[in-house]
Amino acid sequence: GSAQGSGAMGGSASLIPRDLLGEYQELTFLSKQEILLAYKRFSELLPKEERENACSARVPKSQILTLPELRANPFQQRICHVFSTSETEDDSMSFEDFLDMLSVFSDSATSDIKSYYAFRIFDFDNDGILDRSDLEQLVNCLTGQGEGSRLSSAEMEQLIQNILEESDIDKDGTINLAEFQHVVSRSPDF
Amino acid sequence: DGSDDNEEGSAVENEENAKGTDKGKKRATPRTRRAHARGRDRHGDEDDEDDEGGMRRAGPRRHRSRRRGRAAGNETGDSDMEPTKARKNQANQESKEDDEEDEDEKGGKSGKGKNEKKGDKKSDKKGKKEKANKKKKDKKKSGSGSDSESEEEPITEEELAKLKEEVEEKKKLIATLRNKPWKMKKKLSVLKEAQLFVEKFEGALGKGKGKKFYAYKVMMTKKWMKFQRDFENFKTACIPWEMKIKEIESHFGSSVASYFIFLRWMYGINMILFGLTFGLVMVPEALMGKPYGSLPRKTVPRAEEATAMNFATLWDFSGFAQYSVLFYGYYNNQRTIGWLKFRMPLSYFLVGVGSIGYSFMIVTRTMAKNANDDGGGDDTSFNFSWKMFTSWDYLIGNPETADNKFASITTSFKEAIVEEQESRKEENIHLTRFLRVLANFLALCTLAGSGYLIFFVVRRSQQFALEGLENYGWWERNEVNTVMSLLGMFCPTLFDVISSLENYHPRIALRWQLGRIFALFLGNLYTFIIALMDEINLKARYFLPFTMFDRLLGNTEALQSLEEEKIVKYNMTIWEASLYNGTIPENSTAPPIQVDPADVPRGPCWETMVGQEFVRLTVSDMMTTYITILIGDFLRAVFVRFFNYCWCWDLEYGFPSYSEFDISGNVLGLIFNQGMIWMGSFYAPCLPAINVFRLHTSMYLQCWAVMCCNVPQERVFKASRSNNFYMAMLLFILFLSTLPAVYTIVSIPPSFDCGPFSGKTRMFEVISETLEHDFPSWFGKVFGYASNPGLILPFILLMVLSIYYLNATSKSYKEANLELKKKLQSVRIEN
């Protein structure tokens, strides 16, 4: 997420109490200005009546996906799902979920926590490992929605074969969290 | 002391009261708050109140009411934690709380009262506490047990130590909490509970020996952490241009943004260099040195006075600009100036050396940091996995860029698959090789051509100088600078075209491109320097500086230089004598005749001339960049946009279309610029200031131009932030640019008539002079011993050996890594 920078503090400063702000600072990788800016962006997603209570309101997934940072992202659905703490499984997000998400995506977050969440995002079937079907879905997300841009099944097969050769250290046909973190920690681009 | 004791004790009691009553109680709040205000002194209060307040007021912000676990949680939890005293209160107030919670339910979910959801939160906390801290519970039980007795009995040493350990553990937990991949609610509850624990027992711990010191230490630590956090916030707010760069990132991806981040980093370095030169060299001389017009070296010569204030002269950095603090020649060689006894020559020397040292240090430090991020550079490269897991650029917020990104990812997948298959075949490798050799040959030809062109142009300018520059127009006067800038503009494009023959992966192609442009600029630079030295030789006809290139070329003219200087000096004494009507006074009894400094004949001042050349080059480079952007990008975009309607073919898709941002060219321009600054700032202290101005305006202009006139690149590849390639080039350029300055300091005698080192045989003598005058004598002796070659050579040997040792260790670590990997596989197979 790129909701960073010196935001307009204005009225939003009065809506998060100072101590809670301090705690959020302790628990996330965000600075005070970033948290306030996040609050502002979050409350803009709510309908006017609920804005007073932004800290306790939940924003439905459709609203979250209108954020420009998520709109163009192929993993938008997965991101909402992973960070949402909704009990009704509707992938709606509260302000704290929102902060969690921003914290993990921020520049100062450690590679460990980023790779942990990346693993969960890529794990489409939520079974704790990346197996063939997860990898296939991942590739399809990355190559876009157009018909011409998808890989043929032979290419897909080859690609997944190569990936498993590289990353699957214990050769069990799937990539678990430890292997994923090992691969990704070596990457300069992560 | 007694009163402190009481305070401490009452504070702890009040704390416990607060804990006891606060757990799900609302009515207690005002009372506990008053108790706090009473029981503690002002200092320790604020932070504690923060935490307490947070605990209390966080209640209404909770969004979910989970009352199910509350009742159960309350019983067990409270009975564990409550000290005996507060239990009665709790029993009383629980019934009250039940009533109030019913009211709250009626009142609706939206957080009305301050303390509405406190009960829920506490129950959450307790629930989580049970789950997450099972093993700590026992410890706490014993801890609380001992604490409940603490009011009556002193704590034993053992328990004290154990408590301390637990408190430390909790503190560490708090510090690393943000690293844990838990949901915010869980983190909040763990944090609160840990903070509670720490507070509760920190007070108790304070009861033992040295309690006052301990309490003080605790308070200072808290204050320090708060200060650190505020400072971090402040630092983040101070980072300039953050929003601009983020916007560019979301439109163009991180490779274009990496250029701007690099620019910002350079700006920071230049600010520091500017601070050094401005604050320690220019300002003291301006404030405390002799004013303009008091010395010959500080005055415009009579011959030039008429044109000294013209804009053309000032733009050329002669006239008044030359005889000012901006250049080396203005500074006087007095050992101390002003009432502060500021040592000007020493300061000048140290600032020069210090700038170089600082630049080295910061570039190396950034490289080391990037190398850490790189993950140590393993032997394996996970090509496909990286493409899969790390190729998406999460900073992209623009659908158009996203589409480009999708396309490029697909292409790169297909390419990689095909390449993998083809690497197992041997087909057509000869054609590729031939094309690559051809491309390199063409690149070499371009380099040679550009080198020759510069040489030719400089020779021509020497001819012009011989015939007198007044006869020629603007082009002839500025030919060298313009040609160098134009070459720098067009050759990279040529290299780009050549590289399309080679068919490399874009990242590798970028490196080849950068390497070639690097060679181009390097060749131009050194050709320029050689030409510059020759030009100085020619311009100042009556002297020839003892230059290193002359020496390299075995030029015997150099030997004449010292002779020439002597001649000038002799001429000056004769001129002085002529003022005394023909007699050369042997003693100084005759009163000195007042001569206007503007009339005194001047000695040569090659340092100022060199400084001027560098300044002119920087300014012309800056102008060229701006004009290129305006014409090459802006006018082109305007043309394509508005003439598209009335043109035969589609201008936007065919030629010329909108331009893409040229990362490599811009980065290299920036690096070479900086090389100029490093080279010239010793001779012209104004150079960092000019560069700061240039970078500042450049940032705004280029940000605007990128957003307005450029389109995202077709092949969007991610330039990782930890790209050490730029840094390595910067380091190399730094090394090369400081060579001339260091050489002149060590080997060339400074001009006798200008600058802070005039009169000395070597510039670094200012150090030995300072050691003699300003330091005690033993210091000088120690320094003398330390700079003995007999000591320095073994030291260098030691460093070489340690480098070798570290290299060997890192190799062995890599091998150990491989072994472990194999082991992992075999273990899994066994299972």
TrEMBL record, chain A:
<dbReference type="GO" id="GO:0000287">
    <property type="term" value="F:magnesium ion binding"/>
</dbReference>
<keyword id="KW-0106">Calcium</keyword>
<dbReference type="InterPro" id="IPR051433">
    <property type="entry name" value="CIBP"/>
</dbReference>
<keyword id="KW-0677">Repeat</keyword>
<protein>
    <submittedName>
        <fullName>CIB1 protein</fullName>
    </submittedName>
</protein>
<dbReference type="InterPro" id="IPR011992">
    <property type="entry name" value="EF-hand-dom_pair"/>
</dbReference>
<dbReference type="GO" id="GO:0005509">
    <property type="term" value="F:calcium ion binding"/>
</dbReference>
<keyword id="KW-0460">Magnesium</keyword>
<dbReference type="InterPro" id="IPR002048">
    <property type="entry name" value="EF_hand_dom"/>
</dbReference>
<dbReference type="InterPro" id="IPR018247">
    <property type="entry name" value="EF_Hand_1_Ca_BS"/>
</dbReference>
<keyword id="KW-0479">Metal-binding</keyword>
<dbReference type="Pfam" id="PF13499">
    <property type="entry name" value="EF-hand_7"/>
</dbReference>
<feature type="domain" description="EF-hand">
    <location>
        <begin position="155"/>
        <end position="190"/>
    </location>
</feature>
<feature type="domain" description="EF-hand">
    <location>
        <begin position="110"/>
        <end position="145"/>
    </location>
</feature>
Automatic annotation (TrEMBL), chain B:
<dbReference type="Pfam" id="PF07810">
    <property type="entry name" value="TMC"/>
</dbReference>
<comment type="similarity">
    <text>Belongs to the TMC family.</text>
</comment>
<feature type="compositionally biased region" description="Basic residues">
    <location>
        <begin position="24"/>
        <end position="41"/>
    </location>
</feature>
<feature type="transmembrane region" description="Helical">
    <location>
        <begin position="308"/>
        <end position="331"/>
    </location>
</feature>
<feature type="compositionally biased region" description="Basic residues">
    <location>
        <begin position="124"/>
        <end position="142"/>
    </location>
</feature>
<dbReference type="GO" id="GO:0008381">
    <property type="term" value="F:mechanosensitive monoatomic ion channel activity"/>
</dbReference>
<feature type="compositionally biased region" description="Acidic residues">
    <location>
        <begin position="96"/>
        <end position="105"/>
    </location>
</feature>
<dbReference type="GO" id="GO:0005245">
    <property type="term" value="F:voltage-gated calcium channel activity"/>
</dbReference>
<keyword id="KW-0812">Transmembrane</keyword>
<feature type="compositionally biased region" description="Acidic residues">
    <location>
        <begin position="148"/>
        <end position="158"/>
    </location>
</feature>
<keyword id="KW-1133">Transmembrane helix</keyword>
<dbReference type="GO" id="GO:0060005">
    <property type="term" value="P:vestibular reflex"/>
</dbReference>
<feature type="compositionally biased region" description="Basic and acidic residues">
    <location>
        <begin position="113"/>
        <end position="123"/>
    </location>
</feature>
<feature type="transmembrane region" description="Helical">
    <location>
        <begin position="346"/>
        <end position="363"/>
    </location>
</feature>
<dbReference type="GO" id="GO:0050910">
    <property type="term" value="P:detection of mechanical stimulus involved in sensory perception of sound"/>
</dbReference>
<feature type="transmembrane region" description="Helical">
    <location>
        <begin position="725"/>
        <end position="746"/>
    </location>
</feature>
<feature type="compositionally biased region" description="Acidic residues">
    <location>
        <begin position="1"/>
        <end position="15"/>
    </location>
</feature>
<dbReference type="InterPro" id="IPR038900">
    <property type="entry name" value="TMC"/>
</dbReference>
<feature type="transmembrane region" description="Helical">
    <location>
        <begin position="434"/>
        <end position="458"/>
    </location>
</feature>
<keyword id="KW-0472">Membrane</keyword>
<feature type="transmembrane region" description="Helical">
    <location>
        <begin position="514"/>
        <end position="533"/>
    </location>
</feature>
<feature type="transmembrane region" description="Helical">
    <location>
        <begin position="265"/>
        <end position="287"/>
    </location>
</feature>
